[in-house]
Amino acid sequence: MSHHDHDHHDHDHHDHEPHAHGTGHGHAGHSHAPRDFGRAFAIGVGLNAGFVALEGVAGWFTGSLALLADAGHNLSDVAGLLLAWAAVAMTRMAATERRTYGFGRSTILASLANAMLLLLAVGAILWEAVHRFMAPQAIDTWTVAGVAGAGIVINAATAMLFFGGAKDDLNIRGAYLHMLADAAVSLGVVIAALAIAATGWLWLDGAVSILIAVVIAWGTWSLLTESTQLALDGVPRGVDHSAVRTYLASLPGVSAVHDLHIWALSTTDTALTAHVVRPGATLDDTFLASIADDLRARFAIGHTTIQVEHEAVCAACSLHR
Fold first, then answer.
1. Which of 263-267, 284-288, 297-301, 309-313 has the lowest average pLDDT?
2. Would you list the DSSP string of 48-63?
3. pLDDT digits over 80-128, tens only?
């Protein structure tokens, strides 16, 4: 006999019904839905699009290739913000017969894309730095420093809009790191410009650029590895697979646990499936509801399916664990 816990809808409502073939099934409430950062995205996109226009105009009138190049780079940041924003919007779209889990995974793909955009930015900065070392160029230091100073304010302010969600939502963290990286780039430009104005050492521009690139790469690595982990259906950060198995094995009447799988439905919602061996068990909706509640409260796993068996089955499963 197999049992699956039934859907725990919003407001922690429990609804247990027998499933066809004598089973029941269910999922814990999606209590970890992403916070609404729509206003933050709208402000961030508006500020950064305006800054791109400012840099473009300043670069054109001053003849500064550096400002024009940075305007192009910041345009890619607007694209990154739009990507993360679209992913958040897609998580609110209803599931379909073809996409039964909905579109939550779009936030994982957006996180991965933003990590790759950041690494591409690092490569572009390093490439430009090498060229500046080989052929140092005089710059209009005060104009460049002034525009970059505005960039620090705009990018740092945008980053702070996402600070509250950067810890718990990988997609929001991608947007946050993108803006923080840009603030660091702008700060580096200011420092280099002022230092060049004071010393005349043109090589400082390239040296500061390389330092910034290293800092961005260091900060991006965790975003890249974690988003890749989630994209490959790995166990999300913060969920202890062994602890979950120990909890399930300790339940009353359970003699074994197998086929335990934990993966991310989105950057904020985690799913679990498991087979628990419970010799002599009968249909017990209370038992299943209790498991779903505990997994949600203790491990932040909001979508749970448990199959209860009298003895271990599916021994030949390719994913049997």
1. 309-313
2. HHHHHHHHHHHHHHHT
3. 888 888 888 888 888 888 888 888 899 999 999 989 988 888 888 888 8
More confident residue, 232 or 129: 232
Q: Which domain holds residue 244?
A: 8-32+237-309
More confident: 300 or 33:
300
Prediction pTM value:
0.75
For residue 96, being part of any structural domain is answered with: yes
Considering its fold, how many domains does the chain have in total? 2
Q: Has residue 315 been placed in a domain?
A: no
Residue 181 forms part of a structural domain: yes
Q: Do 187 and 276 sit in the same domain of this protein?
A: no
Is there a single domain that holds both residue 197 and residue 243?
A: no
Side chain identity, residue 108:
I
pLDDT at 239 exceeding the cut of 90: yes
> d(Cα 200, Cα 194) in Å, to the nearest integer?
10
In SS3 terms, 204-250 reads as HHHHHHHHHHHHHHHHHHHHHHHHHHHHCCCCCCCCCHHHHHHHHHC
**Which 3 state secondary structure label does DSSP give 189?**
helix
CATH number of domain containing 141? 1.20.1510.10
Helix residue ranges, H only, the chain? 38-62, 65-91, 106-134, 141-161, 170-199, 203-231, 241-249, 285-299
Length of the chain: 321
